Structure formats: C-alpha cells, structure tokens
C-alpha cells in the first residue's frame, strides 16, 4: 500500500506504522491524504482507479463552510416542517439564529432591534478562531462594515476579496466546569452519503478556556473567556503547555453523570449523536457521493446550561498535529481506527 500526504503530521506516523510506503508520485498511490485546496483544484474521480482512496468529498464545503451549513440546515427545517410538521422540524433546531453579512444585513438589524443581546461574528471560511469577535450594539456592525468597505476600496486587483461573515446569536448560558467555558471536539467519519454511513469516535475531547466565564460588558472583547480554540488559548499568559486545556470526552460524560445523573448524561450523548446524524442528513442530497472518498470531520459542539447541544461548526481539516503526548495518542488512535474502517488491506 502506497500513501501520499500533503502535510507532515500524526497521520504519516499512522500510515508508516501500518507498513505502508510513502510515495511522491502524483498518480501511483493507494491513499492520498490531501488538503482541501488540492481537492477543489485537481480532484477528478474519473481519473482514479477503483482501489484508490482520498480523504475529502469534493464538495465537502456544503457542510464545512459556515454559511453553507446554515443554509442547508435551514432548508432541511423547511422541508421537514412541510412534510412532517413543526414538531419534527424542531428536532433540527441545533444551530443558533444566524445571518450572512453583508447580504442579510437588513434582516439581522431587524432581528437585533427585536431581541438585542450578544452576537458572535465569524468569517465563513476561516478556522482556529481567526477573525472572531462579539458584538452587543448595532453601531459595532456599522463600524465593521465601514472598515470592510475601506479595505475593499484599497484592495489590489490580485488580492482575494474579504470573506462574508456569519453573525450568530451568542449562547450566553453555557454549561460551565470549574467556572470555565468549553466546547466539544468530536471526530465524525463519513464513508458514504448514499446511503449515509457515519461513525463517531469515542475519543473526542473538551476544549477549555483558560479564564473564568463572564458575560460582563467589559469582558465582551476578551477571547480568552469566549473562544475555546486551542490556537487562541495557547497564547494566553496563564496557558500551561504541559497540561494543555483538554479533557477526554468520556471524562466529561462521567462528570455530567456525577453532577446531573447518569440518565441526564446518556440523554445528552444521545442528543449529540442525533445532532451529528441530522446535520449530515441536511447535506445528504447536495453532497456528491463518491466511492473513492471518505472524510473525517471535526464537529465543534457547545452544551448550554440546560444540557442542550448546539452545533457551532464542522471542520473539514480538523488539526491532527499534536501539542503533547496526550494529544498525539488521542489523534493517533483516532486515525488508526479510521484506516481500519477504510480497510485498504482488505482484512
């Protein structure tokens, strides 16, 4: 078995330890661990042999780009409500109220004037917490728009235009552990969309902020409080690299079981599994199914104080590089299990 890899990381160790041989050939490989840009620009299923496998579906962005995800879930809610009624459609209510800016600015302003509160701004196609900020006044949106328009006027011809943003109702009552906010990173693997075949790995993890949670207006710009992305938290003055800021998913389930009871913990994890499946159902009809493709998604899920899971985003390229031995062992095991499922060896 020959493998080709677009990046050096834990995945190369996994493939080498399975006895696979690395190749730099552009065509003579069994599995290609590609980056999404290569898939967008070069992937052509008709040129692949039956046995070849690649780690992305060609239009994965229907699920992994924030605005497309929201659009597809909203469409699914309308379809379900029309065919099965409102009660069934409410099962898909796991994404906070969202608008794409600047396209839906008028709709957002109308909603903000009606309900107010705190909202979070996210660029639709960036990761690791880049470009995220919170707002609690409409004037902040006006300021953002002016900066954006100024940048657009000054943009060189060969520069990419600024991405749209997703503005989303901020969850002001997250479930806290030790007074700190966290979210869940759950690894989900899809090997087929038609029929839908999906696996959820047992060893996801919680990502904690380093700072006590606060909704005080003075703390609204403090991303060490509000963002749980490791890329942000590891720049905090009090970050301890040897400890990191992660908990195994099973430790979290045990914690909820001891605090809220086993039944509540089981109900929460059943709801998380249902959220994952329903999000995939929302893109199933638009995703181009391809027998050569499999994909590992990084689901980011926030739990609120009522133990309701909310989908924050889905990552097409969840980080598989390791910060410490704990991180390495977790990701190595997850990737090794994924290759057991793909089963290139024909076991």
TrEMBL record:
Keyword terms: ATP-binding, Ligase, Nucleotide-binding
Source organism (scientific name): Caulochytrium protostelioides
GO cellular component, one term: ciliary basal body
Protein name from the UniProt record: Tubulin--tyrosine ligase-like protein 9
Top-level taxon of origin: Eukaryota
Residue span, ATP-grasp domain: 86-343
The UniProt record lists the keyword Cell wall biogenesis/degradation: no
Family label: Belongs to the tubulin--tyrosine ligase family.
A Gene Ontology BP annotation from the UniProt entry: microtubule cytoskeleton organization
SUPFAM superfamilies, alphabetized: Glutathione synthetase ATP-binding domain-like
GO MF terms held by the record: ATP binding; metal ion binding; tubulin binding; tubulin-glutamic acid ligase activity
InterPro entries attached to this UniProt entry: ATP-grasp, TTL/TTLL_fam
One Pfam family linked to the record: TTL
């Amino acid at each position: 078995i020959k493998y080709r890899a677009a990046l050096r990381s834990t995945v190369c160790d996994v493939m080498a330890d399975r006895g696979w041989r690395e190749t730099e050939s552009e065509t003579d490989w069994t599995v290609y661990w590609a980056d999404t840009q290569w898939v967008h620009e070069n992937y052509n299923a008709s040129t692949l042999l039956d046995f070849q496998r690649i780690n992305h579906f060609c239009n994965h962005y229907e699920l992994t780009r924030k605005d497309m995800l929201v659009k597809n879930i909203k469409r699914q809610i309308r379809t379900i409500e029309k065919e099965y009624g409102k009660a069934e459609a409410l099962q898909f209510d796991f994404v906070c109220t969202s608008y794409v800016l600047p396209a839906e600015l008028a709709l957002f302003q109308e909603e903000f004037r009606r309900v107010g509160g705190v909202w979070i701004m996210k660029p639709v196609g960036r990761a690791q917490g880049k470009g995220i900020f919170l707002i609690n006044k409409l004037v902040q949106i006006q300021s953002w728009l002016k900066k954006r328009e100024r940048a657009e006027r000054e943009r060189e011809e060969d520069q990419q235009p600024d991405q749209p943003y997703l503005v989303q109702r901020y969850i002001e009552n997250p479930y806290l552990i030790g007074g700190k906010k966290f979210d869940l990173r759950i690894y989900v693997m899809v090997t087929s969309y038609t029929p839908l075949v999906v696996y959820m790995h047992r060893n996801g993890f919680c990502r904690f902020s380093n700072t006590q949670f606060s909704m005080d207006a003075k703390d609204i710009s403090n991303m060490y409080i509000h963002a749980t992305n490791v890329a942000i938290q590891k720049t905090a003055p009090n970050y301890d690299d040897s400890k990191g800021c992660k908990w195994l998913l099973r430790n979290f389930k045990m914690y909820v079981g001891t605090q809220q009871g086993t039944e509540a913990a089981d109900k929460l994890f059943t709801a998380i599994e249902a959220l994952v499946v329903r999000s995939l159902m929302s893109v199933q009809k638009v995703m181009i199914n391809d027998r050569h493709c499999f994909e590992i998604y990084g689901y980011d899920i926030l739990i609120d104080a009522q133990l309701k899971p909310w989908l924050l985003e889905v990552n097409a390229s969840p980080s598989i590089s390791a910060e410490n031995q704990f991180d390495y062992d977790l990701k190595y095991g997850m990737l090794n299990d994924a290759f057991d499922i793909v089963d290139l060896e024909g076991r």
